[in-house]
UniProtKB/TrEMBL annotation:
It comes from the Bacteria. This is Uncharacterized protein.
Length: 142
């Protein structure tokens, strides 16, 4: 008697192959469905597009010498000999060297421009700022 490969009790029947084929098909369909749903773009929303905010600009350091035109608790306006007028914002952190300032005094202002607004970090009478003295912003936080 000649034996054929997989004859008798070791022979695989058709339903064995059918079950594996069904399982592989189901896995393939599930994979394609998951990929399709995961990569599908959502429907466009009805809301208007939001404007992107620009990154905050780095402050620009300035030094300005001029005559006081106006002074208040939170602002100091000066004019240069060339006629350029600048209003500086004064904060509680502004270092005021030699006390209060009156109109017609010549002052030196060290500050920064933040978002287009000049902010004074130190203000001093011109006579107090000599060529041999320390810088006005010495020891101020940066």
């Amino acid at each position: 008697m000649t034996q054929t490969p997989r004859s008798g009790r070791h022979r695989r029947v058709r339903h064995f192959y059918a079950g594996r084929a069904a399982l592989m098909s189901a896995l393939g369909v599930a994979a394609v469905t998951g990929w399709t749903l995961g990569s599908a773009d959502s429907a466009p929303s009805d809301s208007a597009p939001q404007a992107r905010t620009a990154a905050a600009e780095a402050p620009i350091e300035i030094q300005h010498t001029g005559q006081v035109v106006a002074v208040s608790d939170d602002a100091l306006t000066t004019v240069t000999p060339e006629g350029h007028t600048t209003t500086f914002r004064l904060t509680p952190d502004t270092n005021r060297i030699t006390g209060g300032f009156e109109p017609s005094e010549t002052v030196v202002v060290v500050g920064v421009v933040r978002n287009g607004v000049p902010v004074a970090t130190a203000v001093a009478e011109q006579d107090a700022v000599g060529p041999g003295g320390p810088p006005m912003d010495y020891g101020l936080p940066t």
